[in-house]
Design brief:
single chain, about 300 residues, alpha/beta, UDP-N-acetylmuramoyl-L-alanine:D-glutamate ligase, 9-stranded mixed sheet, 9 strands, binds adenosine-5'-diphosphate, binds 4-methyl-5-hydroxyethylthiazole phosphate, binds magnesium ion
């Protein structure tokens, strides 16, 4: 870790264009501290496998959680939530109508939300739901490389000579490297920004070295722990915590801050655990204990 003397907790209103080096690190530290001080609510419509880890991770990061699957309940809760999270990991038949309606209402009401396009490319129902988000898109998409490549193709964002091809539909695990998804992620971030009420969006691609982009700036975030692939819900809970950060900061800063928090916390968890069970418990403890200075001092490589 480098020295932390750059940390200035006063709010910086600098735009991302003016952000580099220490200015970005200040915003990251600010986001980590703001979540802990403001305990923002990020509401989730998420899968049944990992719902408990998502809520616990949001609490451990300093936010609060509320899970719901009913459109009118979600639209009402969005009025008191700082941001929202939709994860399409496990689908039920009614989701095909409910999720497009929720995305439309969030868009109409100017609400921010994070999408985790789990298993994008698998199944007609999931494809129909994800395609419906093209016109009313999230503020941030967070997924593994294969999911970002599949969603980019589904939304038809590439020109004919710039198509990114994935290896095959990937289930919930990635079968592509993060680097294979760079152009898809950049295109997608520009699409999100174009449709976002604030004109800002971001895409986070997770893997051994995470990548975050707003379509103009692209950052690689190394580190973390390979043990993250040995528990279910590392990606889903990162999506939930990204929504928690989105409640207090702009999309690019939120996506970078959440990914860095996860990388630092998972490194600590690996040291303190003895296998997947204790790793998951240690990860929650580390999300709680890692300092804003540790997160902000992380290695950040701008492309
Ligand atoms: N090989 C790895 N080394 C370090 N961290 C990893 C590795 N694979 C995944 N991660 C981390 O695990 C978390 C979830 O990412 P990932 O496994 O790509 O998502 P998903 O579970 O959605 O496929 C992220 O914080 C990511 O940085
Ligand atoms: C195993 C599984 N099946 C449907 S959703 C899901 C959880 C995926 O979690 P993550 O993408 O965070 O590993
Ligand atoms: Mg996932």
């Amino acid at each position: 870790m480098s020295d932390n003397s750059y940390i200035d907790t006063s709010y910086s209103s600098a735009s991302i264009d003016a952000l580099c080096g220490d200015a970005l690190r200040e915003r990251i530290a600010q986001a980590v501290n703001d979540v802990r001080e403001q305990t923002p609510l990020a509401q989730s419509f998420t899968n049944f496998v990992t719902i408990n880890l998502v809520a616990n991770a949001q609490l451990a990061a300093g936010g609060t959680a509320a899970m719901s699957f009913l459109p009118d309940d979600i639209i009402d809760t969005a009025e008191i939530a700082g941001s929202n999270y939709i994860n399409v990991g496990t689908l039920l038949p009614f989701y095909k109508e409910a999720l497009p309606q929720i995305a439309y209402e969030l868009h109409k009401n100017g609400k921010t939300w994070v999408l985790d396009p789990v298993a994008a490319g698998i199944g007609k129902t999931r494809t129909a739901i994800l395609e419906s988000f093209r016109m009313y898109p999230p503020t941030i998409v967070r997924g593994n490389a294969s999911e970002i490549i599949a969603l980019d193709a589904m939304w038809g964002l590439a020109t004919s000579d710039s198509v990114t091809s994935g290896t095959r539909p990937a289930g919930v695990e990635a079968v592509d490297e993060v680097d294979a998804a760079i152009e898809a992620a950049q295109r997608m971030a520009r699409h999100l920004a174009k449709h976002s009420p604030s004109g800002k969006g971001a895409v986070a691609v997770s893997g051994a070295v995470d990548l975050v982009t707003d379509g103009e700036h692209t950052f690689r975030l190394p580190g973390g722990s390979a043990m993250m692939t040995k528990i279910t819900g590392a990606g889903c809970s990162l999506g939930g915590v990204t929504a928690t950060y989105l409640a207090v900061s702009e999309p690019l800063v939120a996506a970078i801050s959440a990914s860095l928090l996860y990388n630092r916390a998972s490194e600590i968890a690996e040291q303190e655990s003895n296998g997947p069970g204790s790793f998951q418990v240690a990860l929650l403890d580390a999300l709680w204990n890692v300092t804003a200075e540790q997160v902000a001092a992380s290695e950040i490589i701008e492309d």
